[in-house]
Design goal:
16 helices, alpha/beta, 6-stranded mixed beta sheet, single chain, Nitrilase/N-carbamoyl-D-aminoacid amidohydrolase, globular, 15% strand
C-alpha cells in the first residue's frame, strides 16, 4: 500500500481536518457553544457527496479515519501524559487508544456514505442515527469500552439546553446535536435553493427552541429537597508520590488532619475520602484502620473512603480491587459490604484480554479484578451509591444505583495522573449528565481536584481548584423523581443502533441488486 492510498483527496482532507479541529475544541474545559454544532458539518457534507457520487467504501473509510484520528488525537493526548507515570512506552498507550477509536469512526463514515448512496436520505437523519450508534458501541466494547467523548458532553456547562437528558440520557443530547449538524450540512448542500436553506435553518431554530423551552420549564419546576451535609477531603497527593512506601505515613497524616478540620467546622452527616486515599491494603496496615475508627467515632460521623481491598483464594492466590469501604459513626469498619469497582480503566487498571496476575509485579498497574454488581451504602439520611473514578462516564452505572433507591451519588476519584491536561475537566463534566438523567444530587471528591457537588439540574457548586489541598462541606440536595431515562435506559442509543443495522441491510441489498 502506497502512502497516497492513505491520504484522501485534498477536498476530503481539508473537511476531515476542519471537523477534527472543531471537535477538538468543542469539549470542556472550553465552554464554546458554536463548535459542537458545526464540528460534524464539513464531514457530513463530504460524506453526502461521496455517497451521491458512488464513491468506494475505501474512500469513505480513509476520510473517516483522518477525522477520527485527528479529532480524538487532539482531545485524548492526555493518555500519554497519564501513562508516562507508569511506563516509558506511554505514547504507545495513546496510539493504542486511537487505534481503537479511529476504525470506529471510519466504520461510521462508511455506513453513512453507503446509506446515503442507497437511500438518498438527508444528513439530518443519517448523521444522528449513525453517530449515536457509534457512541453506543463505544459504551459496550467490553474491556475496550471508552465512551469518554459523547457529543452531548460538549454542553455539560450549559444546563438550560440539556435538561431533556432526563428523558433520553446523554445519547439523546448527542442525537440532537448531530441532527443540527446534519441540518446545517443539508442547508449547505442545498444552498442553490433559498427556500430549502430557510426550511433547514428554521428546523435548527425549532430544535434549539424546543430544548431551551423544555430546559427552562424543568429548571423552574423541578422540586429539590435537602439530602445531607457531606464533607469531602481533597488531600492533593501527587501521583508520583502516591504509591511510594515511604510516603504512606505522610499521606494518612494529611487525610487525618484535613478530616478533623472538616468535621470540627461543619458537623457533616457523612465524611468522604477520594479514590485509593489509603495507598495500599487495609489488612496490611492496622494503624490505618485505627485512624479511620478514631476519626469516625470521635466525631460520630460515618465515613466512605477509597482504599485497595484483597480477596484471598485457594491455592495461595488472591485478587485485589479498587474499593470503597464504609465506617459507621461508632468507627466500625466492615459493618456494610465493601464496594469493588466494576468498570476498570483499560491498560492502567486492567490490561485487556491478558491474565491480571502477569502484572502484579508492577505495583497496582494492569492487574485489578472486576467487582460484582454495584450496591449502595445505607445511611440514616438514605442510600448512597459510589462511582469510583471513570465509572461516572457510563450512564447505566448511575442508573442502576438510582433504581436501587439511591438518593445521593458519590464520585470518588484520583485524577492526579491526568496532570494539568484537559482530562480533569472532561472527566468532571460527565456528572452534569448523570445528575440530570437521574435527577439526583452528586458529590465529587477528587484527590487533586476538581471536587464539587452537582445538583439535580446539572449545575456545579463549590468547585475546588486543581492541585491544592482542600475540604468542603456541601449541603446536598436531591429529588425523589424517577425519570423516563431511569425507566427506559438508553433507548435513544438502542433505536439508533437498530436503525443503523437497518441502513446497513438496505445498503447491502441495493449493492447486491446492482
Amino acid at each position: 500500500m502506497t502512502l497516497r492510498a492513505l491520504v484522501p483527496a485534498r477536498r476530503e482532507l481539508v473537511a476531515a481536518l476542519a471537523s477534527a479541529v472543531l471537535f477538538g475544541i468543542a469539549f470542556p474545559p472550553f465552554r464554546l457553544l458554536v463548535p459542537v454544532f458545526l464540528c460534524l458539518v464539513p464531514a457530513a457534507v463530504v460524506a453526502a457527496r461521496l455517497g451521491d457520487e458512488g464513491a468506494s467504501w475505501r474512500a469513505a473509510a480513509r476520510f473517516g479515519a483522518w477525522f477520527g484520528a485527528v479529532g480524538y488525537g487532539i482531545n485524548l493526548y492526555w493518555i500519554a501524559v497519564a501513562l508516562a507515570i507508569y511506563t516509558d512506552l506511554a505514547f504507545l498507550g495513546y496510539i493504542g487508544a486511537l487505534l481503537v477509536l479511529t476504525p470506529m469512526v471510519a466504520l461510521a463514515m462508511v455506513i453513512i456514505v453507503a446509506a446515503r448512496r442507497a437511500t438518498r436520505l438527508p444528513m439530518a437523519l443519517l448523521l444522528p442515527v449513525v453517530w449515536v450508534a457509534l457512541e453506543l458501541a463505544l459504551n459496550y466494547l467490553g474491556p475496550l469500552a471508552f465512551p469518554w467523548l459523547p457529543l452531548g458532553l460538549a454542553l455539560a456547562r450549559h444546563p438550560l439546553v440539556i435538561q431533556f437528558a432526563d428523558l433520553s440520557g446523554v445519547r439523546g443530547v448527542s442525537f440532537w446535536i448531530a441532527a443540527i449538524n446534519g441540518l446545517v450540512a443539508d442547508a449547505w448542500l442545498g444552498r442553490a435553493s433559498a427556500r430549502a436553506v430557510a426550511a433547514r435553518l428554521a428546523a435548527v431554530a425549532a430544535l434549539v427552541a424546543a430544548a431551551a423551552g423544555y430546559g427552562a420549564w424543568r429548571m423552574r419546576t423541578t422540586v429539590m429537597r435537602p439530602a445531607a451535609a457531606v464533607a469531602v477531603v481533597q488531600p492533593n497527593i501527587p501521583q508520583i508520590e502516591k504509591w511510594q512506601r515511604d510516603n504512606r505515613g505522610k499521606i494518612v497524616g494529611i487525610l487525618a488532619r484535613l478530616s478533623r478540620q472538616a468535621v470540627a467546622a461543619d458537623d457533616p452527616q457523612l465524611l468522604v475520602w477520594p479514590e485509593a486515599a489509603l495507598p495500599g491494603f487495609l489488612v496490611d496496615q492496622p494503624d490505618w484502620a485505627d485512624t479511620v475508627r478514631a476519626i469516625a467515632s470521635a466525631s460520630r460521623t460515618p465515613m466512605i473512603f477509597g482504599v485497595l481491598d484483597v480477596r484471598f483464594l485457594p491455592g495461595n492466590d488472591y485478587r485485589y480491587f479498587n474499593a470503597a469501604m464504609f465506617a459507621d459513626a461508632a468507627g466500625r469498619i466492615g459493618v456494610q459490604r465493601t464496594y469493588h469497582k466494576t468498570y476498570l480503566v483499560p491498560i492502567v487498571e486492567r490490561v485487556p484480554f491478558l491474565d491480571p496476575r502477569w502484572f502484579r509485579k508492577w505495583n497496582y498497574f494492569g492487574g485489578y479484578a472486576h467487582g460484582g454488581p454495584p450496591h449502595p451504602f445505607v445511611l440514616p439520611f438514605g442510600k448512597v451509591g459510589v462511582l469510583i473514578c471513570y465509572e461516572s462516564i457510563f450512564p447505566e452505572r448511575s442508573r442502576t444505583d438510582r433504581l436501587e433507591g439511591v438518593s445521593v451519588l458519590l464520585n470518588i476519584t484520583n485524577d492526579a495522573w491526568f496532570g494539568r491536561s484537559l482530562a480533569p475537566y472532561q472527566h468532571e463534566a460527565h456528572l452534569a449528565f448523570r445528575a440530570i438523567e437521574n435527577r439526583v444530587g452528586i458529590v465529587r471528591d477528587a484527590n487533586t481536584g476538581i471536587s464539587a457537588w452537582i445538583d439535580p439540574l446539572g449545575r456545579f457548586h463549590g468547585e475546588t481548584g486543581l492541585f491544592v489541598p482542600a475540604t468542603r462541606t456541601y449541603d446536598v440536595q436531591t429529588t425523589d423523581v424517577l425519570t423516563l431515562y431511569d425507566h427506559l435506559g438508553d433507548w435513544v442509543g438502542a433505536l439508533g443502533m437498530l436503525a443503523t443495522v437497518g441502513l446497513v441491510a438496505v445498503a447491502l441489498r441495493r449493492r447486491t441488486a446492482s
